[in-house]
Every structure is written in structure tokens, then in C-alpha cells.
Amino acid sequence: MIEFDLTRDAIDTEAWRRRLLDPHCGGYAAFEGWIRDHNEGQQVRRLEYEVYETLARTEGQKILAEAVERFGVNGAACVHRHGSLELGDVAVWIGVSAAHRDEAFKACRYIIDEIKVRLPIWKKEHYVSGDSGWVNCERCATHGHRHDDIAEGATETADVER
Amino acid sequence: MKTIHVHYFAAFRDQAGRDEETVTTAARDPAALYAELQAAHSLGLGADRLKVAVNDEFAAWDRPLQDGDRIVFIPPVAGG
After folding, report:
1. ipTM above 0.90, yes or no
2. Does B70 touch chain A (CB under 8 A)?
């Protein structure tokens, strides 16, 4: 079973785990990405994910197929949420089933790492302070009245989870 | 001149103030089109920080544009 999905609803992780059960498999590894209450020194109140759905679905399926091919696992699945999410919600779930644990762990790690850099999904954080901002995209808008933008450096702050 | 459909997401949607637009352009490729729209909407990142999709597939910046193409400029992603 190789399946990627996008949903606005809560992810039923147990139902997805059951779909990976396979008598040929002796190991299962899963990863859940949760909404946490802080980022870059700001207190986060809630998040919004926006997705370019058509491309995200083909790219997500491609990442899973790569993991199966590369690590020889039996099953790989991933669900990513979009829309408005609250603290503690599961934003992304990944599950891998394999004959042995080593390839299950490796494939699971590969999938989340690729998802984070390749899937066209964006995250807007809403802070306790009332501000909000698109993560990794502080400089997506230019500010013509500010002349210190370039001097501040073009370095984009990395997602602290990485 | 070609008619190109451009869709905006996330920070670029906010900055451009629209989800999509149809532009008539002489731009030969996505790189030239981005330069036009970057100026028009004050989009803050250089093309080197973006990816581009043509007709819902990742594409090269120098792929020739065809009349009716659907383009998405993809700012830095933040899934997971």
C-alpha cells in the first residue's frame, strides 16, 4: 500500500496504521508532526496550512514511491492536513511497514525530510501577540520604504524543527 | 503575445492581493514572466529562492511558455 492524502479533517492515525498491517511485515515505524506552541521565540496560538493541492498530491505520491524503491519497504503512507489547525493537532502523519525495523525507520525519516522541502504547502502562524506570519517567507514581500532590507542579509530563518 | 494564467498561494497571494490573474505577456519563459510580476506586485524573493510549476508540474525556469499555460510561482515551502 502506497498512499498519500491531503485532508482538512483530523487524521485518524489508528485507521491509517491498520491499513498498513501486513503479515509479511515485522516492523512498523510512524512519525507524527504536531502543532507546537512556539517558534522562533514567538508564542503560537494556531496555524493555517495552505496547499497547492494538485502538485502536492503528485509530489507526495512520488516521495512515497521513492522511499519504497530506495529502502525496499512494503508499505508507505502519508497524510498532511491543511486549513486551520489548533495546538496539539497532528499536522502530518507518516507510516511505513517493512520486513525489518531498520528500513522502516529509514524510509519514515526519508519521507518526512522530503515532505518538508518538496511539498508545496505553506504554514501561517498566528501568534499570541496578535501578529501572524508565513513561515520561511519573511521576505516574500518587498518593503520599498525600508532600505536596510539587503543589509540585514538574505538569510531566511530555518524552520527550527529541522 | 501569450495569454498566461497565474495562480498565487500563501505569502504571494497575500502580497499580490489575488488568488489568480490572467496576463497577456511577451515573456518567453517563467523567468521573464516572474521578473514582470515581481515588479508589478512587489514580490520580495528572487527567482533563485523559488520553484515554478507549469500546468501543475515542476518546470525549468527557461521552459518556453505556451499560450494558455497555467503558472504557479512557489515561495519557500513549510510543510510537516
Report:
1. yes
2. no
